Amino acid sequence: MTLIPSVPAAKRVLIVGATGFIGRFIAEAGLDAGLPTYILVRSPATCPSRAKTIKVLQEKGAIVIHGVVKDQEFMEKVLKEYEIDIVISAVGGANILDQLTLVHAINAVGTVKRFLPSEFGHDVDRADPVEPGLTMYKEKRRIRRLIEESGVPYTYICCNSIASWPYFDNTHPSEVLPPLDQFQIYGDGSVKAYFVAGTDIGKFTIKTVDDIRTLNKLVHFRPSCNFLNINELASLWEKKIGRTVPRVTVTEDDLLVAARENIIPQSVVASFTHDIFIKGCQTNFSIDGPGEVEVSTLYPDESFRTVDDCFNDFAATTNGVTSPNHVDEVLSKIAPMCA
């Protein structure tokens, strides 16, 4: 009799916050990888763009579960009935602490093999932004400590910045084209950061969920091809559009004043921009601890999409835009998002 080797069943993944900017890329990557992918969404979806995202993910094979993450009894039921192996949270800043309930549910069920909380930015234990951004980081630290104290198996994804133009006063960089009228240069523009395309955040996140090398570790995204400062980003964009654009200095004091105004979300973004491009929070430490790893060393054969390539897309989108007054119209064609 010939024995046929058994093939391990694909891990069942539950994604919370799949209709958000980061969550959508993670859900699509999970589906592309052939993983049974479940998405938890509120019912009904009142935002048209989120309803559209849900429809697209369903058409790709996602299984929609209606409910809220802060209902522990409900979450325990979901984790048990759907036999969820991996839980990934990409909830937004206002809902970070809802994950406390999620961690309690995962701990109570005891069958989840990996939890990825809503990080997808900086290492919150190292970064130290001014308020109001610090409050969000304190909430994320609180989630980390509960995970670790509960013994829930985890992976923390620290993917740094989105590959786009980083406006300090905008809701999210992904919603903004590189400028056509003037560049905002933070400080002297020389502090570098790492930029990662949304598709790569999704791709590499999904790669880590069943990798023993990432169990109970921080995974840092530091693509050398996208290690750039603001001046370099500006020069790259000028090359794409074929003309120079005036540069205006946004000083450290300007950013601190914007942060102190406590206008949400602009002041939060200003505090993070200060931490990145003035204090260098993405680059002022080395990755050498036993509990952390850089993603390129894990998957050396996988490439990152370059900022240069991302800017090609932006340049194609702005084709025919003759003045800054047309920017709003162009933006509406890229990726309208709900607040």
UniProtKB/TrEMBL annotation:
One Gene Ontology MF term: oxidoreductase activity
Keywords assigned: NADP, Oxidoreductase
InterPro entries in UniProt: NAD(P)-bd_dom_sf, NmrA-like, NmrA-type/Isoflavone_red_sf, PCBER-like
SUPFAM superfamilies associated with the record: NAD(P)-binding Rossmann-fold domains
Top-rank taxon: Eukaryota
Keyword set includes Oxidoreductase: yes
Matches recorded under Pfam families: NmrA
Residue ranges annotated for the NmrA-like domain, each copy included: 11-308
PANTHER family noted in UniProt: LEUCANTHOCYANIDIN REDUCTASE, PINORESINOL REDUCTASE-RELATED
Protein name in UniProt: NmrA-like domain-containing protein
Species, as recorded: Nyssa sinensis
